[in-house]
Structure to design on (204 residues):
DNA sequence: ATGCTATTTTACCAATAAGCCAAATATGAA
DNA sequence: TTCATATTTGGCTTATTGGTAAAATAGCAT
C-alpha cells in the first residue's frame, strides 16, 4: 500500500540516520576529505569508517576521487544541508519543549 | 569525537528512515489523519502503525489530538517536506545515473 | 454494569545494522 | 621485488529494529 517511491527515499534517509555518517556528511559539505582524516575525526576503526562511507556512496550522497593511495570523498548534493538545518530546527524545538516540562 | 548534536539529529532522522513512516509523514503534511485511517492507508497491522506513530511522536515530528475514541495525528514541522523533496531529488539523480549505467 | 470500537502495550521472533579484528587489495617508494 | 601506507572486504558477535498476535486501556453507547 505504501507507494514505491517511499522505499527509495527511505533508503537514502537511512544512510543519513547515523551520528557518524551525519557528522561525516556535514564535514564533507565544507571540503573533500580522505578516509584517513575522516577516521581521525570520527575516532572509530578505519574499517568502520570505510563501511559508513560505502553506505553513503551507495545512497548516492557522496562520490570518490582517487589520489595516489588516498581516496577523497565529497558531498554530491548540497541540498542535504538544508535538510540538516530542518532537522536541527526540530531538535531545537524538542529541547525547548522538554525544558518547559511539556 | 562526533559532536553531540549529531546524535540528537540522527535520532530524528532515524524516525524518518522507514518507508511506512515516510509515507505517513507525507500524508500528514496534507491533513490530520486518525490511526485507523493510517492503518488502512499503509496496510499493516494496527499495532505496527501505532508503534511507527510513537516513533514519530518521540522524535517530535508529530503531535496528537484525541476526539472521542479516535486519535488524530498531525505533522508538527512543515520543513520536513523540504527535506523530503531534497531526498526525492537525490533519488531522481540516482535513477538517472544508474540508467546511464554509470 | 456490558459491549463495541479505537488505540496502545507487552511479549516474542526474525531480520538488519554496527562494531572491531584480521585478511585482502591497491598504490607508490626504495 | 619488498616494504609501507591507505583502503576495502569478510567474518563474527552484539544490539537494535520491524512485525504480528494477544492482552490491556480508554471512551462512548446501551
Amino acid at each position: 500500500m505504501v507507494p514505491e517511491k517511499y522505499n527509495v527515499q527511505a533508503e537514502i534517509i537511512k544512510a543519513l540516520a547515523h551520528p557518524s555518517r551525519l557528522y561525516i556528511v556535514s564535514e564533507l559539505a565544507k571540503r573533500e576529505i580522505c578516509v584517513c582524516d575522516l577516521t581521525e575525526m570520527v575516532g572509530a576503526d578505519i574499517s568502520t569508517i570505510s563501511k559508513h562511507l560505502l553506505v553513503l556512496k551507495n545512497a548516492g550522497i557522496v562520490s570518490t576521487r582517487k589520489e595516489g593511495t588516498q581516496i577523497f570523498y565529497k558531498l554530491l548534493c548540497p541540498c542535504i544541508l538544508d535538510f540538516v538545518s530542518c532537522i536541527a530546527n526540530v531538535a531545537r524545538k524538542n529541547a525547548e519543549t522538554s525544558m518547559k516540562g511539556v
